[in-house]
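Hi X.,

You mentioned you wanted examples for the new student's onboarding notes, showing what a folding record looks like when two proteins sit in one file. Here is a clean example. The first protein comes first, with its sequence line followed by its structure tokens.
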Amino acid sequence: MRRRTNSMKSSFFGVELSPDNIAVAMVYFVQGVLGLSRLAVSFYLKDDLNLDPAETAVISGVSSLPWLVKPLYGFISDSFPLLGYRRRSYLVLSGLLGAFSWSLMAAFVSSKYGVAFCIFLGSLSVAFSDVVVDSMVVERARGESQSLSGSLQSLCWGSSAFGGIVSSYFSGSLVDTYGVRYVFGLTAMLPLLTSAVAFLVREQRVTRSGSSAHILLETNSYKMSSKDSMRQLWDAMKQPNVFLPSLFIFLWQATPHSESAMFYFTTNMLGFTPEFLGRVKLVTSIASLLGVGIYNGFLKSVSLRKIFLVTTIIGSALGMTQVILVSRFNRTLGINDEWFAMGDSLIITVLAQVSFMPVLVLAAKLCPEGMEATLFATLMSISNGGSVVGGLMGAGLTKVLGVTKDRFQHLTLLIILCNLSSLLPLPLLRLLPQDTFDSGAREVSDIEMKSN
């Protein structure tokens, strides 16, 4: 009985809590909890640096750039071991880089260029550790049963989601109580957890014993393997059944949005406090999980084209409800600003997650056998690239319409244009495959849901 109890205590989500798996779960948790600083960054740019919404949107775009070249990090990690390790050493380095970037934010940075540089470094830290830990998950899932592989993915996703919910709960109240610099300093300690748990990773050290010719031969073999992988990646991307859906994913993400302008309006005009916006982030984090559940429960067998068509049209219509908040018509309806914003964010987030899930499933289905991880990371980079372009287009449109930190006369027009532009990719739906998802979509959709 005692042995059985110990066995039960040593597993979670059906995964044995070995040092390796604990390290993987902790890295995913850190990625989720690093959202603690997002509200602090937004308020710092708005209140301390007095930037306009367009400038804030550009800096947000810069922070996403490291996510556009994720396959490169895999190539570096596989081909150039540090101190004899291909996984452990890069996790330590990523954690130290993240701690360094947020320490600079907490103590020294006082210009928009400094903020952009530090956020870029922090994003690079998370992106690199993400690739390294993803490769560890792939290595551990290889050769295992489908049940155990799915349980491992669930542990990763659950750890990241839990970190996101925790950070959402505390992000606003900490800014309200202690200020943005305090939050930056607290955030600087979180990446150190990644460095610490890296020493739990059991990895065979690449020794330098033996002849130099043997060492050179081993190094060259990794480089040749990486070159072959890149050649296979290029050949796969040139195939019409991969290139055309990838083009649609990019264009679907590359539509302008008005998030930065709405943040300035809700804080400067409506007086939303950091604590309230933290509660909104908590609600949207839970709503994101609800969206995943709705997709897996009811929509995983619906054709891809139909899901994109319906969710895009409904999403565009629901996005227009922000005009009600800007025009204060919600007050005429007897709904105060905070409750309207909370409900609006919840519904839009659920729909956004439902519409994004097919992107992950499609990306996974496009990957040929033998290069799943590399091509999946590339397709996610393409998706992230579209998001960056959409953010920059939104920043340009915000600038052209003259929406600033205290001028919102054309905010309604900005909202309408951004939501109508989301309909532009719909004529290209025929670029997507016509098949429907089978019952295996549940497992495929579990792959890297955290990339949202």
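Then the second protein repeats the pattern, sequence line and then tokens:
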Amino acid sequence: MGKRKNYSGLSHFAKQAFSEGVGGDHKKETSRKPESLAGTGIGTGGALFDAQKQSLDAFALVPHYKSASEVPTHLQKYFSQRHRYFSLYDQGCLLDEEGWYSVTPERIASQIAERCRCDVILDAFCGVGGNAIAFAKTCHRVIAMDNSPTRLALARHNATVYGVADRIEFVLADYIAFAHSYLDRWEATTTSHPINSGNNAKRRPIDVVFLSPPWGGPEYISRQLHDANDISDADATAVDGSTNGFANGYGNGTESHPEFSLSYMQPIHGADLFQLTRRITNNVAYFLPRNTNLEEISALINLSMSTCPSSSVPVPAPAGDSTEMVEVEEQWMGSKLKALTCYFGGLAAGQEHLF
């Protein structure tokens, strides 16, 4: 396993991708369909969705709007962008209310997927599946996780529309609980079997984790504005300055919002979420609001002293005198900056050797 270059997962699967998972049996793959995650340590604390066992009709869960007249007023502006979210929307893609305002636009999802090419990727907050669908085109195996049965069912449905559902494992689980259970099981295994510890330990089967946790819904901007009312005019100027709207120069010149703090993240502080994830893998892609405080993003590297999946030593730094860096990529749609994707570990340009 590892980083894949110029590789499309559309017609290939990783043989035995999970056969060496923690506590798993070493079984040979007998078909092209991805194996169940059972017994590999991946499904710990969650329930694996089986397409043939999932009898619930996704169209019974949410409406498929066909015209603006059918759409509630508060979702009108999102419906107008439906083909940016899913180019195949008219073929039956479905979104719940949260999905309408949180799904990653398809072109942005595709760009992120290109940067995250690998054998096994975990989409920790998959929602209605926008990113998972894109990952299925560049990675051997995709684990799509969400704590909502409805959103997970919609993600599977949308992946079916795109013809990639058989390349994705859909897991119903809370990511925070899953991560703790996954790490506990790994540590218990290496402790009970010293021969597998240190540099001789088997690499855990998750190469990359994509984090796109809830930002707080459409209210996350109004929350920042409310918080901003509690600071002085001088402090407000320091926040926004003359940077065309967004702190640190981010924005399109038409809006003005205070910085987004990682402390606003749900379900836990964004820094805590990152540190927990870095214990699973060094390679993390973090999808954040466009006006996120860049100093907080940079500080994540200093706060994180993760261990390599196959070792108990700190993450190795790049060659030379430099330290590990984070790469911040702006995600634009037309003339508007939509979000930031922060790449850590071997995903950052120039740090491929850390993968």
